[in-house]
Write a structure and sequence with these properties.
CATH superfamily of chain A: Chorismate synthase AroC
Largest interface: A-B, 119 and 119 residues
CATH topology of chain A: Chorismate synthase, AroC fold
Number of domains of chain A: 1
Number of helices of chain A: 10
CATH architecture of chain A: 4-Layer Sandwich
CATH class of chain A: Alpha Beta
Shape of chain A: globular
Oligomer: homotetramer
Distance between the termini of chain A: 41 Å
Structural class of chain A: alpha+beta
């Protein structure tokens, strides 16, 4: 069944494989009147590019976005925004030996069982390249959110065993986070970033790979976003983040630690501050009962280590034979740094969708629109 | 916007508050011909009932389900199954002092900001009572899954600081898990369960509350369920589990630990076994690239401690005044034991939906149906 | 697959058969703050009741609606509104001889082929009784629309061969239409209504049945509702009206006649009137390019004659035998008068949904809501 | 709100304006394994091209489709199929005088009211060019349907006042219909087609335009497609056909005539024929209670005359002034012949979607897939 669409109101559909001529997305439901050009989108795609050779693949991916529809005189028209990115760097030959064997840690076996065969070149739709289309759409979402005073930033908080100390990120503003994570691993701490780069290099030497944790902080979200019951803000964020290939856990606020804490510690008490209700702590990560409470939203995605490693691994092939597989080609020893902007994009898409979805929550608000 | 519906093909819509006359759900899309009666559903609701007084509220909730439609001659007809549970135990008076103040850790403030006012009696739609409707629907999903050899069981693996040792659950069969977790905290270990009961009692004495972790194991899932990209099996499970009120983190397989491991450790290698491809380990928790791989699925939901505690807490009220609030009424010092069957229900609903969604994946399968 | 839900933002799911204990609907997405009680809904259900014995069945259907959720202190809370109507008048025995034969003109054969069997009592889900749930939901939609100055009314314009002259309805106000169609056939012309009653009586005598045409006029719709391309206002109205069992054609504005006219005749020219752009004619029926243009919306539904007639008819049974079937039981010789309020309800549901869907059309409007 | 997606299981999203660089669609949910190449799609696009200069615009539209994703080794992979058509013939200069005035009979005014402004070049999204994307998707749907023995054909049955006699089309096979309607007006009768061509020429001379009626016949549809209640086969077809810009009425089977007939005439009786249940007549047009009954499906779309005519017309402009507008540019005096394949495409998309949606109707069918 169709599964390539995310969102109800602000709705993106992605398409494309790493080895076809192009990939892209259609974004439907963006309000009319938003100033938008390729210059708003390209920087996000650039953040997704393989960076410093120490941490990522030698592939050259020059992802240039083309805006094909939905813009007139520099503003969105309210109709679908089609964006396309040409594939320029595919090397089909590299994947020859994967045609009939199942790479450990990959979706190969599942795809084969589901569809009867698969496009084995670069993983087909399960390729990380698909996320380029999400990043393009996420850039539009972020632009829309900025019109409402909502801003967000993702950054690496752990890479392999190198981990940012508790509270280190929370003491930085979004601007500081952006500045300080401008390094090959997107970690907002110069020293730790260097340690992380070294640990990636080591893993690569050992023909191995690393995982890590990406955090996204979203500020300026008005209280009231998210829908009770199934479309809770955290349910949508959870869905958004788990839809990124290598994510194996998602956490909101104190999440995991909260499960071992007590109500008296974990409850965020409130006080009036500058005439407004404010939370004295933010264990909840900005979401209570699935609804934003006005405090910064904190979401964390846990990435498994890249499954493609250069060591020989035991697996089976389509003929039902035990084999030992050595994967050639070019692979990132860690996807985390490149996934940072993907996490940010998915959070932006989620928030933009719920911002629109919330428009009809109150009769009195609706009246402001129409009467 | 409407947010009370879960699923695309096997689709449940829940309704009702704790203080209205009833609550329930409509389940649309269940295939025709499934034998079904109230006797299939009631046991699931009974598992959700407040249990031993040591760990839960003194409220008496006798949730009797009524099947109102969609059944003929003891089988589903393919049309909507409406299920209703009467509310018999509401005490509106208890909630009087909450009408205009925002309970810490609750959705009160967000609801107020969203809708302009709220049904403060028992939390309205954010009440845990809403989950009774999900459990009823989940029972039908589980029945459907059982026809395809898919079975599942949820159980507590941590309650406050009492935690099942790593690997303790995985050595037990689903039947053993069911048997051994037949205790007030649903923990599949007699000694630890007793320790957990004591720790709940202590928390209650201290006017405090506890959180915990619930795990669900799903066996017999064919490889191939889940849709690439946004409707990945883990994205749907993530959404399903985060939609449960107090869940703050979700983990699939080794999830959190995987982020700190290496590819060579985390990849599940394959070998042929009894003529079938099999995974030698299951770090992935049965899901790769968002598609089931045939191994048991392992999902974990992290619950924060119950926000309603009997200690006075600092908060604000609707008039923008700082107040100290003491919550009266009856509250569970921990929701985890009662949430176990809710986790199971949400997993069952997710799998049933994706089982149906997968029907059209291959032309050759579709031909089996029609030609 | 699930097919019992209508609408995206203002979303109703109906459930129930004529021979179960009850039927009803869940309405999700209604904005919070709308004053609502059973007294708003019951009059619509009363309009659907079998009327004067001359034109309808002798069944007594006393459809009393119960509001089960989503209301607090007399206003909607923004959460699902569950409504239930008990079935009080089912006579299963009457349908005995239909269990294994396919009634001509009914959905029996299709249901059997689809599901492998069917609830033959009263047609199951294809029974006209299902529409009672829609009428209840439509009453809420109409109440919501009235808050925005949108009002609507449906009435019979043809019954069998008795037809209102072209233009007769358009010269009447909505209030006049309501008053004048307060007769057993809902036709806004006393003399023609009497002729229609006689022609129903004649058809009944001849053990035959009649069809007819229902028109709905919707006034006060702001220009701009409906979405370009697939969710055009007329596409949604078309879907809404064709979803009523016996409807075999739907027409917007001059519809059928327009196909034989010329552009110079059919185009509605515009002039300024009282400082506002206005259409000089309304051949388009208030919709251009799928978007409302501010003129009154005119939709027409063509109903086939009731398939249940008392004459013996040739058909086949489940054993593959040719048979002659005589249908017993109580049947309306014409469904049109009772369907009038169903048409109105479906139009109201469509407009309410698109009113909400349009909320996010412009960035500037969204800013009014949030900033 | 997003409105550019059609279908639930077999789901197409279109994008693009006539004056952007390209337009296209993404088709998600097509089963894996369907042989597919551009050669399957191009002939459908060619049928949509402006034909003989006597009946259509002088524009040269050479719509060449590019398949960008979802195909591997000549077969669909089960993942999104992206198709793009470059715009090669846009003349923005032609539309200069339309920038601030509202063309009678067009969506201009509604778009402006909805979005605050509009892409006035060629009508933006309300342009007929958008349908090229639907035709490409419809070609894939038709290919899929053909694998299940379902075939369909649309043709003109009326153009202005020239009308095919009742029953003339129904006596022809689908192949004969295809052959005989290979003329500039797609009317399956040589003489009438010539008369129609003359009548278009006359309308053009008179600076006027014509409407018409397109019929689509679908054969080989198994009984059981369509979902009870809101997703009835006719509700979906109605939605599909009304979503085509100029359609103002839709009719199934005897539709309009049925409303004036009697049950004894309109009911289709059944007899066994060659061991199968068969209908002796087909007044219902193959659909009863919203479910296909195995008889050929007959749907008719009524098109209004093209609103763009060369005569001066009264209208208003954005400054609120009464003006007289003369439209320049190139316009078809009738859209019907080019819309024939669009009708066919929308019917194919509807059937393909419901064919997939029906897969989960029965437990026993689902078991065939999985067990």
């Amino acid at each position: 069944m169709a599964g390539s669409t995310f969102g109800s109101c602000f709705r993106v559909t992605t398409w494309g494989e790493s080895h076809g001529p192009a990939l892209g997305c259609v974004l439907d439901g963006c309000p009319a009147g938003l100033p938008l050009s390729e210059a708003d989108i390209q920087p996000y795609l650039d953040r997704r590019k393989p960076g410093d050779s120490s941490v990522s693949t030698a592939r050259k991916e020059d992802d240039a976005v083309e805006l094909l529809s939905g813009i007139f005189d520099g503003r969105t028209t309210g109709t679908p925004i089609s964006m396309m990115i040409r594939n320029t760097s595919q090397h089909s030959a590299d994947y020859g030996n994967l045609a009939d064997s199942f790479r450990p840690g990959h979706a190969d076996y599942g795809f084969d069982q589901k569809y009867g065969f698969r496009d084995y070149r670069g993983g087909g739709r399960s390729s990380g390249r698909e996320t380029a289309a999400r990043v393009a759409a996420g850039a539009v979402a972020a632009k829309l959110l900025s019109e409402f005073g909502i801003s967000l930033r993702a950054y690496t908080i752990a890479l392999g065993e190198v981990k940012l100390p508790e509270g280190a990120a929370s003491s930085l503003s979004l601007e500081e986070l952006a500045e300080r994570s401008a390094n090959p691993v997107c970690m907002p701490d110069t020293e730790l970033a260097e340690a992380a780069v070294r640990s990636v290099a080591l893993a690569r030497e050992q023909k191995d790979s690393l995982g890590g944790i990406v955090e996204c902080r979203i500020e300026g979200v008005p209280a009231g976003l998210g829908e009770p019951v199934f479309d809770k803000l955290d349910a949508r964020l959870g869905s958004a983040l788990f839809s990124i290939g290598a994510v194996k856990a998602v956490e909101i606020g104190d999440g995991i630690a909260a499960a071992a804490s007590r109500g008296s510690e974990n409850n965020d008490c409130m006080r009036m501050k500058d005439g407004k209700a404010a939370f004295m702590t933010n264990h909840a990560g900005g979401i209570l009962g699935g609804i934003s409470n006005g405090a910064p939203i904190l979401a964390r995605a846990y990435f498994k280590p890249t499954p493609s490693i250069y060591r020989p691994q035991e697996t089976v092939n389509e003929n039902g034979e035990d084999i030992v597989l050595t994967i050639a080609g070019r692979h990132d020893p860690v996807v985390v740094p490149r996934a940072v902007v993907v996490v940010e994009a998915m959070c932006a898409l989620t928030l933009a969708d719920l911002l629109l979805a919330n428009a009809g929550a109150r009769l009195s608000s609706m009246k402001k629109l129409y009467l």
